[in-house]
From TrEMBL:
The active site is at E247, C281. This is N-succinylglutamate 5-semialdehyde dehydrogenase. Its EC number is 1.2.1.71. The gene is astD. Pfam families: Aldedh. It is an enzyme of class 1 (oxidoreductase). GO terms for molecular function: succinylglutamate-semialdehyde dehydrogenase activity. Keywords: Arginine metabolism, NAD, Oxidoreductase. It catalyses: N-succinyl-L-glutamate 5-semialdehyde + NAD(+) + H2O = N-succinyl-L-glutamate + NADH + 2 H(+). The keyword Oxidoreductase applies. PANTHER family: ALDEHYDE DEHYDROGENASE-RELATED. Catalyzes the NAD-dependent reduction of succinylglutamate semialdehyde into succinylglutamate. One of its GO terms (biological process) is L-arginine catabolic process to succinate. It comes from Pseudoalteromonas phenolica.
Length: 490
């Protein structure tokens, strides 16, 4: 495969002037995309073109911006199958799942329009003299960083609200999913977005560093690992004028207590732990099961159902539940993580296995109740750690024993247990009798602790895409009826 013009800067597709890099289909290592990365100079040009486009874009009426964003939604709909296939090829996720990702990208437009009005609209309040008006203004030029696991939907969740609010954007996708990013930008281009309003800089970490450290950006919206998020947070220290929104990983607990429908419990555990081959930030990593017969029965059933999970190619006619992980390296990392836990005293109830040289793994379950020195790491793959408990409060305490705080769930027939759980558990997403993956775009999406910096995305993305401006206004300069004591204006 030859290299090609993969940088979209000021409305033009340009060849990168940096190192070449490529994207592989993780199921068979076929090269599906190859190009040269953007250099720091090219990132600089992209920032300048976004700055130049800012006034004309932000001065446009909201409805005019919305019209273009809606044309993008039309493009997404017309090209949804091509996009779903691209996501599947590049990430390894099965087509049934990537079709929902393409659908979520379309859904994001109406939700972001609603959120713009409801969270950042114009509000007027009468005052004794004049009126108080709240408006919101775009920050300016913002950088969007995306992860590989939802290469379409998650960057889109920053880009759409950012553009609607009037910002101009420089998008740096994951270096593992450049192909999906390129296709998405081509749809923005077809939608007629003016030159410079969105720019794409492709590359590996060096390109990301050049963009994140560029003095010309007014903000950075990041979805990715906690490790990178923390680096960015340090880098942004001492720059209070720049907005930084961090959506990072999790080490998410799911507790089962007195739930009578074992099949439903097992279903919700599997959906929570193994969907997307465990590569969702919301995936359950720790499962708390009651000690005793009830927990034994659930575990037995879970083991049976997990062993029956179909793993396969994204385009298999008989669709698998799990596709390949993002890369051979990520898959090998899961085997290493499993071994580390076993060395610490965990027992493999089902061993996670890796088809070497590919991203394919089978799901694993580890019994970890006796591991004392448990690492607080996000293992971003299909490896579920089981803990048995006798006391509900002790289980909640252990569930909270993490620096992360993204998602958490309770499966129970007892609503009072949920009330208690909701009060005690520390997470931004807390579910009851539902899987802890599959969050709604119509709700805020974000975590606390090492999972985020209190700037939730999805429905609340509008909040970090604009700043509020408070004005006290009167049609004409008018002398007040009563002057302040000690004043005489003759
Ligand atoms: N909370 C949330 O909304 C979500 C969080 N995630 C998290 O994302 C992670 C998986 O995504 P990855 O692509 O592996 O994340 P990552 O942190 O490796 O990369 C994310 C982006 O940051 C860039 N980057 C990496 N190092 C950088 C640096 N030093 N300076 C500037 N840019 C840099 C990458 O090139 C990429 O564009 C998981 O930890 C997952 O939990 C994924 C989806 C949703
Ligand atoms: O961003 C949104 O519109 C809603 C959040 C969302 O879609 N979350 C997904 C995937 C995020 C991840 O875990 O990587 C989910 O909760 O399953």
């Amino acid at each position: 495969m030859t290299t090609h013009a993969a940088q979209f800067i000021n409305g033009e597709w340009l060849a990168g002037q940096g190192e070449a890099f490529s994207s592989l289909n993780p199921a068979n290592n076929e090269v599906i995309w190859q190009a040269n990365s953007a250099t720091a100079d090219q990132v600089d040009t992209a920032v300048k073109s976004a700055r130049e486009a800012f006034y004309s874009w932000s001065d446009m009426a909201f409805e005019a911006r919305l019209e273009i964003v809606k044309r993008f939604a039309e493009q997404l709909k017309e090209n949804s199958e091509e996009l779903a296939i691209a996501i599947a090829k590049e990430t390894g996720k099965p087509l049934w799942e990537t079709r929902t990702e393409a659908g979520a990208m379309v859904g994001k437009i109406a939700i972001s329009e609603k959120a713009y009005h409801e969270r950042t609209g114009v509000v007027e309040n009468a005052m004794p003299v004049g009126r108080a008006v709240i408006r919101h203004k775009a920050h300016g030029v913002v950088a969007v960083f995306g992860p590989y696991n939802f290469p379409g939907h998650l960057p889109n969740g920053h880009i759409v609200p950012a553009l609607l609010a009037g910002n101009t954007v420089i998008f740096k996708p994951s270096e593992l999913t450049p192909y999906v990013a390129e296709l998405t930008l081509k749809l923005w281009e077809k939608a007629g977005l003016p030159a410079g309003v969105i720019n794409l800089v492709q590359g590996e970490v060096e390109t990301g560093k050049a963009l994140a450290s560029h003095r010309g950006i007014d903000g950075l919206f990041f979805t990715g690992s906690s490790r990178t998020g923390h680096i960015l947070h340090e880098q942004f220290a001492g720059q209070p004028g720049k907005i930084l929104a961090l959506e990072m990983g999790g080490n998410n607990p799911l507790i089962v207590k007195d739930a009578s429908d074992t099949k439903a419990v097992v279903h919700d555990i599997i959906q929570s732990a193994f969907i997307s081959s465990g590569q969702r930030c919301t995936c359950a990593r720790k499962l708390f099961l009651p000690a005793g017969e009830q927990g034994d029965a659930i575990l037995e059933h879970l083991v049976r159902a997990t062993k029956a999970i179909k793993v396969g190619n994204f385009d298999d006619e008989d669709q698998p539940f799990m596709g390949s992980m993002i890369s051979n390296q990520a898959a090998a990392g899961m085997v290493a993580a499993q071994q580390q836990l076993i060395d610490l005293g965990a027992e493999a109830i089902i061993e996670l296995t890796h088809k070497e040289g590919t991203g394919f793994v089978t799901p694993g379950i580890l019994e970890c109740s006796n591991v004392t020195d448990f690492p607080d790491d996000e293992h971003f793959g299909p490896l579920l750690k089981v803990f048995r408990y006798t006391d509900f409060d002790a289980a909640i305490e252990k569930a909270n024993d993490t620096s992360f705080g993204l998602s958490a769930g309770l499966l129970s027939d007892n609503a009072e247990d949920y009330d208690h759980f909701l009060r005690r558990i520390r997470a931004g997403i807390v579910n009851f009798n539902r899987p802890i993956t599959g969050a709604s775009s119509a709700a805020p999406f974000g975590g606390i602790g090492a999972s985020g910096n209190h700037r939730a995305s999805a429905y609340y993305a509008a909040d970090y895409c604009a700043y509020p401006v408070a004005s006290v206004e009167l049609e004409k300069v008018t002398l007040p009826g009563a002057l302040s004591p000690g004043l005489s204006i003759d």
